[in-house]
Hints:
Helices cover 20% and strands 24% of the residues.
Amino acid sequence: MEDAAQNNNGPELVESDTTPDPEFYILRLYVAGQTKKSLTAFANLKEICEEHLGGRYRIEVVDLLENPQLARGDQILAVPTLVRRLPPPIKKIIGDLSNTERVLVGLDLLPVGEANVQK
């Protein structure tokens, strides 16, 4: 992914400029190669984080083509999948993250009652 630092031993990381605090988000995006859907998911996630988390996040990109064993830990069955590692509880969102309201609800950044989530 364009802004992520390549790490052949594990996930790629994109960090904000701040250190972790109680409202800090650690997000892991599982992808399978540099497909259009994977790139779209990363771009959508980065935009949502910049707009709604204001530097309180870290994105880890895990390419399952390079590290398939990493899918077991978070029980990944489809890609792209976003896993919110922190703050607890762990949550998962599957897809290209193009529905911003659904992503915000999934990350607990928008209460369910305030969103018009499409099914």
